[in-house]
UniProtKB/TrEMBL annotation:
Location in or out of the cell: Nucleus, Nucleolus
The keyword Cytoplasm is assigned to this record: no
Function recorded in the entry: ATP-dependent RNA helicase required for 60S ribosomal subunit synthesis. Involved in efficient pre-rRNA processing, predominantly at site A3, which is necessary for the normal formation of 25S and 5.8S rRNAs.
Family: Belongs to the DEAD box helicase family. DDX5/DBP2 subfamily.
Organism lineage: Eukaryota, Fungi, Dikarya, Ascomycota, Saccharomycotina
Superkingdom classification of source: Eukaryota
Gene Ontology molecular function terms on file: ATP binding; hydrolase activity; nucleic acid binding; RNA helicase activity
Keyword set, alphabetical order: ATP-binding, Helicase, Hydrolase, Nucleotide-binding, Nucleus, Ribosome biogenesis, rRNA processing
Stated name of the protein: ATP-dependent RNA helicase DBP3
Full protein stretch here: 199 to 439 of 655
Major location (coarse): nucleus
Domain Helicase ATP-binding: 58-241
Length: 241
């Protein structure tokens, strides 16, 4: 235990409500399947997880609980949630090709960046829907280049997603994991009301999945400063780690 607290201090890690130790290496707890491990270490050359990844991986995967991750810009928050999403969805393959993961982001550029970064792993279909594309085009894009043997993860900006939900282009019936990325910027850009709308639609339309997974919500932010970000976390997350 003393050893771990030193390690956490050295890596500038503080955890709340977590009863498992962060990982030090990708292989700890045997969480990561071989193909993802190869991609991380050989293709990307990432020798070890960043501190936020050290915490997010074991906590998101070993606890079926909401998670709030705070780490500065450039600290690897994208993979801190993408890797757990991939592993969680791979572990319980579905029979439908519906969206089981949804990543909400403040900007179209970020959505497209995450789509590219995530698709390089080749384990899930990631598709982004953003403003600037017509709904017809989005509808077409969503069925393009899809490997039907892989799980489907959606990345979206709030406004465009609401349009797609209203038009029935997207449904979130089978959603199991929801990410609010750059939550601080979402507040700065005034997305709170739209997040509420999406959250309510999810609560209303979600059906129990065949494996009875709860909806797990993950929120990531560079800062927790400001009352609005704390309020958002409090209203959207249930007893988060
Ligand atoms: P954030 O979302 O926290 O601002 P990103 O997820 O965009 O940060 O990551 C910043 C950079 O760090 C990216 O280029 C990413 O590929 C790289 N990165 C992510 N994880 C690792 C890692 N474990 N080791 C080295 N670099 C990493
Ligand atoms: Mg980020």
């Amino acid at each position: 235990k003393r050893d771990w607290s030193l390690f956490k201090r050295e890596n500038n890690i503080t955890t709340y409500k977590s009863d498992i130790d962060p990982i030090r290496n990708w292989s700890d707890y045997n969480l990561i399947p071989r193909d993802i491990l190869t991609r991380l270490t050989i293709d990307l050359g990432y020798g070890k997880p960043t501190p936020i990844q050290m915490c997010s991986l074991p906590n998101i995967l070993m606890k079926n609980q909401d998670f709030l991750g705070v780490a500065k810009t450039g600290s690897g928050k994208t993979l801190a949630y993408l890797i757990p999403i991939f592993i969680k969805l791979l572990k319980t393959p579905s029979v439908h090709n519906k969206f089981r993961g949804l990543i909400l982001v403040p900007t179209r550029e970020l959505a497209q960046q995450i789509e590219v970064e995530g698709n390089k792993f080749g384990v899930c279909n990631l598709k982004s829907i953003v403003g600037g594309h017509s709904l017809e085009q989005i509808n077409r894009d969503l069925s393009l280049d899809i490997d039907h043997n892989k799980e489907f993860v959606l990345i979206a900006t709030p406004g465009r997603l609401i349009d797609c939900l209203d038009m029935g282009i997207v449904d979130l019936k089978y959603l199991e994991i929801l990410v609010l990325d750059e939550a601080d910027r979402m507040i700065d850009l005034g997305f709170e009301e739209q997040l509420d709308t999406i959250y309510n639609i999810i609560q209303k339309t979600r059906v129990a999945t065949y494996n009875n997974n709860n909806l797990q919500i993950l929120m990531f932010t560079a800062t927790l400063n400001g009352t609005n970000i704390s309020k958002l976390a409090e209203s959207k997350l249930k007893n988060p780690i």
